[in-house]
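agent> Task received from the user: take the single chain below, predict its 3D structure, and emit structure tokens. No templates, no multimer pairing.
agent> Plan: (1) validate residues, (2) run structure prediction, (3) serialize to tokens, (4) report one or two observations.
agent> Step 1 OK, no nonstandard residues flagged.
tool_call: predict_structure(input=
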Amino acid sequence: SSSAPAPGGQQRRGHQRVCDRFAQGLIMLERCTMWLGFLVALLQANAIVGADDREVPALPLQLRATVEVTAHLVDKSRDYPPHLKIVHVKYDYINKRAHAVVEKGYDEGKTFIRRYDSKYEYMVRTEPEAECQRSYLGEEMPAPSLPATATFQGMETIEGDECEHWMDDVGSNRVHIYLALKQVGRGGDFQRIPKRVTDEAVMDGESVALMTYDWKNVELGMPAETVFQLPADHTHKSCERYVGGFPYLHVFHFYYRF
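)
tool_result: status=success, residues=258
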């Protein structure tokens, strides 16, 4: 005859089922908390007002990023002029300084250091031969900002990131602006982070993409002060004086420039 299961075994299996359900509940709670935070951010971004009434958001003031700039009308089969530019940016508007290393494209191999705080800018490169130039920088550092005429178009997914889509339409020219909503730090707030800008010309109802600025590996926060110093083998006096200054670097259309 069959024997009844031992009471102790039934009790252990019962405890195991309770523990399993409790663990599953914790996992679901963690997921719900994460999605709740994201939904709160979406509700804040999509306040219950008309799209035309939505306030244009502010841009981060301190960050590091890799920027890929694509010129759509340039022939990609030719080496020159280059259709792609890659720039590694360290940006600190609060302390009025910026640093850019051009990895690829026009100005390849050059490093630009803008010190609006000390009124000087530098261009440094090591190849094909070492060179350092300095110039007086008397103007104020342009503040990062989106145009007040930009309007909210909705939410879109860009490279896996949920982004706000803004557009500035002036008739013959239209700019699409994408700001990713990302949680900064574990359990931190969701913030808007520059993701992409595409500038396009509009003629007879047809649009043609001109330039796209894609931001990769964005880190918010103040870059180290040492980043904005000249390399050890150069000093302010050893750099050749260059009259007239250097052109702006546009790294998110003209919304970020220095």
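agent> Step 4: summary for the user.
The helical segments are 7-45.
agent> Done.
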